[in-house]
Give the backbone structure.
Amino acid sequence: MTLSPSHPLMDGRTANSPLITAYRGGTPSRRPVWFMRQAGRSLPEYRELRAGTTMLESCLKPSMAAEITLQPVRRHDVDAAIFFSDIVIPLKLAGVGVDIVPGVGPVLEKPIRTAADIAALPELTDAALDPIREAVALTVAELGNTPLIGFAGAPFTVAAYMVEGRPSRDHLGPRTMMHAEPELWAELMNWAADASGKFLRAQIEAGASAGQLFDSWAGSLGLADYTEHVAPASSRALDHVRDLGVPLIHFGTGTSELLGAMHGVGVDVMGVDYRLPLDEANRRLGGNVPLQGNIDPALLSAPWEVLEAHVRAVVAAGASAPSHVVNLGHGVPPETDPAVLTRLVELVHSI
């Protein structure tokens, strides 16, 4: 299977863009930059558009999801759009009872903890993903030469929500299950991998030029647990899209000790969080992996001269890698002044 001839990577719109060039280890025409969580809470136009709408509704209304995805590209001149959605959307589309509660995060009607719970999980059908395809198509039609990045939650993070039933600080439930009931754990991880993989594939086929797997909670794991109980499922999720030939990125928070294993699931680019300097990340990865990151989001509210010095240091550290896409080492905090992000993009493009 390959992408359709009208896909932005195939018809020439995005193949030579700064982002895709850097993701493929080349030298881009300008230094690419985008921000995780660039669409959303920090933008007044987002808050205005979403007034009176729940998070899940906004993700599943194609015209709204497309507009939210486009807002930061118009405002900041970033080099990529990241599809506006949520990692639990595949659960919702499959028919799992889940809601995103303001101030809390994803909450399941019933946690998934027993063999019967896992056996009862519904399969995510191809037709259920139509709203995602429609939203991506609407977005890509407006983006021109700017690539859209599709994304999905890595199986561990998705499964962690499913077992705990809500966000958790230490993820004791999933970490216990992987050791106490490893067969059960593997079944749950395979379900999550297939749901995330189908979700990502729908986005890429509909027009996304790259795909990023987010493992928000993998930092709660040691290397041995990650390698044995998590990496195979992350690889399985990506197996759903490998034949499409788009660059694949892997990112986790608190995962400095897992970088090599996370790259080993089979990705082209490693996202690095703010805890590890990029030159050290490059050293750990053997010096041959394009990197993405890793401005500390806390510094977005610092005085400009402090932020500028930090950004220049990040760019200098990233220069050791084969190529570097500038990003944050986590998402944009909701209280960020949008003008700072615009100025930051101008700075990165000027270096």
About this structure: Residues 182-206 form the longest helix (25 residues). The longest strand covers residues 148-153. The chain has a mean pLDDT of 97.
